[in-house]
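The freezer alarm interrupted the setup, so I double-checked each line after restarting. Inputs confirmed:
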Amino acid sequence: MHDEKQKNDDEFIKIYMKYKTPVYFYLLSILKDAGLSEDIMQETFIRVRTNIYKYGSINNLRTWIMKIARNLALNCLRDRKFELLNYEEINANVEEAVNVDEFVTDSIMINDVLNYLSNDEREIFSLHVFGCYTHKEISEILNIPQGTVRWKYSIIKKKLRKLLKNIRR
Amino acid sequence: MKLHYFYKECRKYANEHTPDVLEKVLKAPLNENTENTSVEHQKRSVWNYLLTSFIAAAILMSLSIIFINIHFWGSNRENGIVPKVTLSPSYNIVYAMQKAYDNVKTIVIEGKEISTNMKTNVVLSNNSWKEIYAGPLNYRYETHDFIRIVNGDKSWNYYKDLNRIEIIPSDPSGSPFLALKSKIDDIAKNDSYKLVGSEKIGGIDTNVIEVTSGNSKDDSWIDTYWIDKETNFILKQETVHNNIKTVIMYKTDFTSGVDKESLKPNFPSNVPVIDRLSDFDIFRSISDAQKAVNFDIIVPDKIPKGFKLFEVRKYKNENAIELDYYNEDFTKFIFIQEYHKDKTTVNIMSNLNDGVLKQLKDDLNK
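Predicted 3D structure, all chains:
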């Protein structure tokens, strides 16, 4: 029994080390709050660990973990009355407020970039960049067609190129 | 700055700025059903659980009495008075519910469904139905003006107000029980649920879970389910979407067995019977069906895993066919309808999620 527990813990720690960064930054892209993202990250991995104990292994682990993280984050937004509607409006204002031509900075802050993207784009960006998720996997996590992911990703690239052209390195 | 360099910088930044919660996660207690590391631990878990449950129940009761000024027992969620608290991992409840429905061989299930416009309080529909289920091709579905009996490869549909019985090919997708089972599989698979409390419904203890449904973040809604703690069957379901509230009360009997006589097509002898079976040719393989039509049947390159062709129906008087695919337990279906006139028009219908359906559509339209 103890050997099995140790084996499960070892397996879980491997998973944790591999996914902690993608999970955290994915949550940050949805919640836009570091403390809250950390809490939900913890809850996500508690669920992952419990299921590792229960089943030994999980099919489609990569997408499954992100689905858990996403659902917990959306539940959290709803519970805390973040007002999803206002959330959309706030984001739109942020987009308008950023003047691309004036966006010149030497230190690249990820939060600035995340604010520059819409909610959906942020999710796709963080899954792709931090988790190296494929378009197919992202479409499964977000429950949208692959074509939509491809299309949105091309918009993200265009936006980022526009944003980055003023940053010399 | 090049995009790939920017991504590299992002990853570097992310690796350096990810908080570490490993210690907290490893210290968090696992669910008592899953850990089982030692007898002592099990005993400790049980006592901890009982103590926690008792304290939680006491707090809930006190809050209900003090702040809401109502009797704790029989509190009604519709009045917005159930405290929203997460009591324990909800997936165990959903898992148990899924297993309970999976284990059903025969069941009698009754539903009372009321839809109300929440803005005007106008009742939009008020329906009751009953299903006696003994298998995907052996069930009876009844409302006040309609009876469907599916028995083997035939389905008898009795329209009481039209005073007419039609016999058509059988169809597992017409079973409300299988539709409910399909819904439960979706809930379990999507992991988009949470436990929000517990409540008594008609004297029965239930767990209340909320499920997020919908196609996107902008078009999502909450379904609430009250699940019998003892049997793990659903007692009540409530959906609020676009200001329409639908409440379904379920009455489930899975112990008495089913009356086999009720599954036989015994209808009043004076009602005219129209046999529509002669309108179709039915095939069990695409190759057989292909011989009967003068156009190339379009078949998806990739049918989702676990799906099998159930049958191909050719409409005798039309240059049209329908391919029916079902998964193993007949809860999920894909119907592909093809009609040929100059070119082949394809329609597809399924209760799979939009992502899978879109892939199938793209595949068929290639």
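Quick read of the result. The longest strand of chain B covers residues 107-117.
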